[in-house]
Amino acid sequence: MTLDPVHFDGIARLARRIDHGADERDHRALAETVWADFLDPLIDGDGRFVLEPLDTVSKHLVDREAIALCDRPFETEHGLDAGTINPTVFKNGLVIDIAQAAMSTTPSSLDLHRSRTMIATVHSNDQTAHVDETWDEFDDGYSRSRAIKVQQRLPRFAEGIVHALALYLAESEHARDHAEDVSDLLILDGPLYPRGLLRWSDQHPDLATFLEENARPKQVVQNYVRLVETFLERDVPLVGFVKNPATRAITRAVQSKDIEAPWGDDGTFFTRILERGEYVSDIDGERWERDTESLTYTGWFRSRGGVDRPLSPEGDALGVDRKLDLEAYEVTFFVIYDPRDDLIYRVESPYGVVRDEGRRDRLTRQVLQDVAVTGGPPQVIEKADELARISASEKRSLREALETQFETVERRTYDDKRWGEEFV
User: Fold this and answer.
1) What is the pLDDT of residue 282?
2) Is-contact 253 42, C-beta < 8 A?
3) Residue 233: which of 334, 325, 331 has the closest Cα?
4) Above 60 in pLDDT, residue 32?
5) Distance (Å, rounded) from C-alpha 52 to C-alpha 73?
C-alpha cells in the first residue's frame, strides 16, 4: 500500500517543525577551522595522539580527464575481496557463516581468478558438537576450505562473531596464499586491518573481553600483520580501499575539546573540506552548486585514533608479535572526494609502504586514476567483488544444503514471511 497524497503531505509538514540548527555556511566554516588549526597534529582531550600529516595538512584537486589519460605508475593491479552467506541460525542451536575470498588481477589471470579460500565458522551451545578443523583442498588444488568452531558463551553476539571471523579469516588467508602472485600492487576491498573485529573493544565489555582472551581474533590480526610484513619484505605496495568510511576518530577528538562538531562522522567532515562549488541565486534564495569537473583529495595522514590504535606503535596488536619496527605497521591514509556521486573514499596503507615520498605519490596517482576512469572503486576491486560475491539464490541453496546436512531447519523469523525471497 502506498501513501495517499494527504498522508505524504502530513509527513512532509513535520519537517517544518524541526530546527536543523546552524546553516551550511557555518558548518563549512567550522570544518575549515578544524582543518586549518587542529590537525597538525590532532590531540584529543586526554592528550592522546590521534592524527598527524605525513608532510603538511593539504588538499589537492586534479582534472578527471587529465588523470584518467596519464601513464599508470603501476602496470598491474591485484584486488582481493571476500563475501559471505550471512550468519544463519538453525533450530538445533548452530550459528554458521561461510565466507569465500577471491583475488582478481588486471590484466586477467584465469588460474588466479579460479582460486578460492572458503572458511565456515560455527558456534554451538552444545559442548559435544565437534568440528573437523583440518584444511581441505578441492577443485584440482586451486581452492581450499576449512571449518572452525568458535568457543564462546556470548549467544547475543554469536551472529556477529561468526560473521567477522569467517570474513576476515577467508580474506587474510587468501591474501597470504597469493602474496607471491602480486608483482606491483595489491588493493584490498576494505580497510587495511580487520576494522569490524577491532571495533569490538568499543562495542560492549563482553565483546572486549572475548577479543582479548580468545585465540581466534588474535589469529585474524596475526594474519594481517604477517601479510603486511610479507609485502614490506618483498617491497611491493599494499593498500586498502574503503568504499564506506565510517570512522569517527577526528569527530570524537574535536568533541573532546568541547567543540560541537555538527558532522556525524569523519566522512562528512572530509566532504565539507573537499567539496568545491559556490552559492548561486535560486527561486527560494540561494543554493549550493557543486563543481563536478575535478577530483579532490587530501594529503596523507598517520592515524592512531579509534580502531587504528591497536596497530600503531602505541598499541599491542592484540598481543601479536611484530617483527619490524612498530611504525611500519601504522595505518596511514588519504581521502578522495568524487563530486559526480558526492562520495568519499578512504585509501589506507602501512606507513612502511608510504614513508618514501616517491612511492606515496605514485600510489596516490594510481588510485586517483582508477577512480577517475571507473567513476567509483578501482576496476580490480569490482572484479574481485564479483568473484567473491555469493548471490541471493546461491545463499538459499547453501542454507538448504546445510539443513539437510544437519538434519534441522533454519530458524525462521517474521521477516522471512513478510519479505519472502527478497529477504536474505
Assistant:
1) 80
2) yes
3) 325
4) yes
5) 26
